[in-house]
Amino acid sequence: MKPFVFVVPGDLATPTGGYAYDRRIIAELATLGWQADVLTLGEVSPGPSDDTRVAANSRLAALPIGPPVVIDGLALAMLAEGAQAVGRNLIALIHHPVALESGLSASVADAIRQSERTALSFARRVIAVSEATARVLVADYDVPSDRLAVIHPGTDRVAVARRDRRDGVMSLLAVGALVPRKGYDVLVAALATLKHLPWRLTIVGDASRSRRTTQQLSAEIARLGLADRISMVGVVTAEALAAHYAAADLFVLPSRFEGYGMVYAEAMASGLPVIGTNAGAIPDTVPSQAGLLVPPDDSTALAGALRRLIEDPHEREHLAAGARAVRFPSWSEQAARFAQVLDQVA
């Protein structure tokens, strides 16, 4: 087995798309002869303590010279010193720049952007998970295009469920951690104007990532009288998530930015029509034949898209057919491309 180091912030088991990408790539690379030594750092975003930053950079600088070192971009902003020490062995994996996370003050975002730019300057190779992220890295972070590789997430093949909604109530599904970037506040505001229509919403996602967001969202749902129509079920198993996809009629997530948006691909792979926004990589992930995209932070436009698909079964089925026709790469295919980058650095 060929060794490499995979550096991640926090807990690799964290239920987010970025960590899911890391876990699946590591697992698939093992079948290709690459053995990962996972180096887990402390909680780092946003704005880790000075002690956390110093300790993380020391651990990175102490790594043995030789094997490739992949650093998840969520940790990169605090690792400029360690990134320089790793030098020619460094591969930066960028889901999306942390400076683009919603809810950061301008000063914090600027500081993170500068630190990310510094760390990226030391990377021998940079992997972006989408063309949209790659464009940001070239334009805003001065990453040379010849050092960039775009490696999308893989998507598992699933059996598409037969949907026969006899009670006439549309089952809406949103998947993603309860953080400002996902735009759940916009979704609730849009649904509040559609109380006269038959729908119910299930939100699947970690409610502990941003306690303030979760508390505000719960309070707003109660204030608008939607508590009996919106369920927040938290983190679920992979099997339970698949069941939620199978039971839904429509997927909706009005994110303010996505570096790729794995849940949109998962929804389409399950045969669901999608409503999202035209922010970040979402337009690259969701083709027009499979979904409707609206501007971020526009609850009126979102409500209009929801109304169209709730009221029109023919348009829903047209988009569902488009979703079923989309073909995404497998995880094994994407791991093979990742392995090529490891070989170049090794």
Write up this protein.
This protein folds into 2 domains: 2-154 and 329-345, Glycogen Phosphorylase B (Rossmann fold), CATH 3.40.50; 170-325, 3-Layer(aba) Sandwich (Rossmann fold), CATH 3.40.50.2000. It starts with a strand and ends with a helix. The protein is of the alpha/beta class. Helix 1 (17-30) crosses helix 14 (331-345). It contains 14 helices and 12 strands. The strands form 2 sheets. A 6-stranded parallel beta sheet has the order 2-1-3-4-5-6. The protein has a 6-stranded parallel beta sheet with strand order 9-8-7-10-11-12, sandwiched between helices. 44% of the residues are buried.
Give the key terms.
six-stranded parallel beta sheet, alpha/beta, about 45% helix, about 350 residues, 2 domains, Rossmann fold
Q: What is the compact description of this entry?
A:
The chain is of the alpha/beta class and 346 residues long.
Count the DSSP helices: 14
CATH architecture of the largest domain: 3-Layer(aba) Sandwich
Low-confidence stretches: none
Instruction: State the CATH superfamily name of the largest domain.
Output: Glycogen Phosphorylase B
Distance separating the two termini: 13 Å
Question: What gross morphology would you assign?
Answer: globular
Would you state the CATH class of the largest domain? Alpha Beta
Write the topology of this structure.
Blueprint: E1 2-9, H1 17-30, E2 34-41, H2 50-61, E3 69-72, H3 73-76, H4 80-86, E4 90-94, H5 106-121, E5 125-128, H6 131-141, E6 148-150, E7 170-175, H7 184-192, E8 199-204, H8 211-223, E9 230-234, H9 238-247, E10 250-252, H10 262-269, E11 274-277, H11 282-285, E12 291-294, H12 299-311, H13 313-325, H14 331-345
Parallel strand pairs: 1-2, 1-3, 3-4, 4-5, 5-6, 7-8, 7-10, 8-9, 10-11, 11-12
